[in-house]
Amino acid sequence: MFFNHPKVYSKLTDPVLSSKSVQHMLLAGIFFAFMNVTVKFLPHIPAIEIILFRSIFSFIFTYLVLRKKNIPVLGTNKKLLVLRGVVGSVGLITFFYTLQKIPLASAVTIQYMGPVFTSILGIFIVKERVKPIQFFYFAIAFSGVLVIEGFDPRIDPVYLLIGIVSAIFSGLAYNVIRKLKNTEHPLVIVFYFPLVTTPVAALISYYGWVNPVGWDWLLLLAIGIFTQFAQYFMTMAYQNANLSKVANLTYVGIIYALGFGYFLFDETYNLWTYGGMLLVLSGVILNMRFSGK
């Protein structure tokens, strides 16, 4: 339903970007945007606690699907799978923290640095070749982050650093996934995130627990649901079109973030900040397009 084996995945990829793939990726972006907004509506709940609820939902759901498909739950390369769970957890926790502390579109834009760090770290982890021009694109993206921080007084340097850490660990997670893609079922890779995160998040949350009240419970449930729908539509898009072409559509998310930030949280930006966002997106998209050739 949600995933096919990696070998099947490569056969399903269509070089043409179909209208269904576009629809699926746009829907994934909308549900990811809903998730981001919902997290921002819970500033009084610690980020690690939100991660705990999200992980429990994902753990139960993914486990049931694995059992239904008779797929070995724990996989084979357990060390790398645990590592994927750890780096993915750190990336998501820090991202949720920035969502709560800085303007929505800025947090999302900084998170979009993930593909840049994926390429840089890929040099060392998967021995991927990076062409000289790509370093110029990296510099464009990094300069955009500096412009955003320098011209938006709402972004504390500490929160900027946390956002960059989130992007770095996202890059690490992507590289670990690339090392696992030929040996593990994608759903097993997904399962290790809540498997590792749930006990750690539960332990940390215990010492700073904030009891959800009223609508908080519904919002926490919504985060889990939005995440599952987002992952489903994103997987559908990747299964039916060229990876690099579909991936570019993820950056429509910045438009969602700007719109939701403006209408729901009264977030506005000056021209310099918009320029910084454009630099980040330009650097990331140029890098992805060039590396895909």
- How much helicity do the residues have? over 70%
Termini Cα gap: 31 Å
- Rg is 18 Å
How does the helix and strand content classify structurally?
A: mainly alpha
- The tally of helices reads 13
Q: What summary fits the major beta sheet?
A: none
Unreliably modeled segments: 1-16
Number of strands: 0
Number of structural units classed as domains: 1
Give the averaged pLDDT, no decimals.
85
Description:
The structure is a single chain. This protein is mainly α and 293 residues long. It has one domain (18-291). Helix content is 77%, strand content 0%. The protein has helices at residues 6-12, 19-40, 47-68, 78-101, 104-111, 114-125, 132-151, 157-180, 186-206, 215-239, 243-248, 253-265, 271-291. Helix 2 (19-40) packs antiparallel against helix 10, helix 3 packs across helix 10 and helix 4 (78-101) runs antiparallel to helix 5. The radius of gyration is 18 Å and the shape is globular. The chain starts with 5 loop residues before the first helix and ends with a helix. Residues 1-16 have low confidence and may be disordered.
Keywords:
293 residues; disordered N terminus
Topology:
Blueprint: H1 6-12, H2 19-40, H3 47-68, H4 78-101, H5 104-111, H6 114-125, H7 132-151, H8 157-180, H9 186-206, H10 215-239, H11 243-248, H12 253-265, H13 271-291
